[in-house]
Amino acid sequence: MPSQAGHAALTPSRTNNGQRSQVTHRDAHLQPRPEGLFCPAGGFHVDPVRPVERALITHGHADHARPGHRHVMATRQTLEIMAIRYGADFAAQTQVAEGPLRIGDTRVSFHPAGHVLGSAQIRVETRGGVFVITGDYARTPSPACLPWEPVPCDVLVTEATFGLPVFRHPDPLAEIGKLLESVRAFPDRAHLVGAYALGKAQRVIMLLRAAGWDGPIHLHGALQRLCDYHLDQGIALGDLRPATIDRGAGKAQFAGAIVLAPPSAFASPWAQRFSDPVIAFASGWMQVRARARQRGVELPLVISDHVDWPQLTATIAELAPAETWVTHGREDAVIRWCSLNGHIARPLRLVGYEDEPE
Question: Residues of the signal sequence (predicted)?
Fold first, then answer.
């Protein structure tokens, strides 16, 4: 249900065809700008792609959390992740988002997004109503972070990374089962699994543990610091070891082993250390076979930390906001679905958001 902020001024009216019509100019309260979403009443941007005076950050992925802002507010874990990635001086000032906070003429709170460790949706209450900026979010529970929390609002700002009906993510444990089946089928080959450093790598590790793999998992050095941080946060990842080849052992040292690395490592000399490895990649994009072929992926694993089409449309239907604003993804398909199902929607067409940069 929409929030009660603003009372009658926020109540949707009905057009002749039964669809809701906008009765306030909410786009004056949250505006897409070249730097990112801007809230004039609070004087802050959300996930800005250029340096700004005050930034509210949804999560630590590098396409949302960038250095160089003067003041940054985020969850404690997101701030610590940004410090790991960019150094302690990534912003002039930082503030942990704890509880509802007053910023200018707004009231702001952070709520779990279920995407990666520390990820949050940002609820912004202004005279124009209640806005919820999801950042990136996932409704399939991940043991590596707090689960997504439904937040009632007047305006839902939703991602649409996988906003096409074709995207229906399978059971992640079944996908991990494919990896383990391949390890059993090819015991003489190392399995190199591409996984982004924040969120996906830890999720793959925890899925492997849940599926019964209790042996060592080897890590490319680029994944080590963020895995160590998850361990510091009390998240059990089991036996992790560096993917370092002993000179005396040769390439056969990793026969039958599972090795996690950033996808960019597969095109580097690092991957040549392994003898005839099986190349796998864990991503929602692996449902698109052409992408798997382009990356030279032999074993695509469709494991996503975003909502798929059924979850995205279910979120809009369940929250029933007065308006849905769609960004960084397949906006047109989601807006078309909204139109057919009696929801008012508009594209934001923000730039700068993509897969996690490596």
Answer: none
Domain 7-166+306-347 shares a fold with domain 172-301 = no
What is the pTM (predicted TM-score) of this model? Answer: 0.89
pLDDT value of residue 244: 87
84, containing H or E segment: helix 76-86
CATH 3.60.15.10 at 7-166+306-347, yes or no: yes
Distance CA 357, CA 226 (A): 15
What's the pLDDT tens digit per position in 144-200?
A: 999 999 999 999 999 999 999 999 999 999 999 999 999 999 999 999 999 999 999
Question: What letters, b where the CB count within 10 A reaches 16 and e where it falls short, cover 212-246?
Answer: ebeeebbbbebbeebbebbeeeebebeebeebebe
Q: What is the pLDDT of residue 253?
A: 84
Task: For 172-301, give the CATH class.
Answer: alpha beta
So where are the chain's domains? 7-166+306-347, 172-301
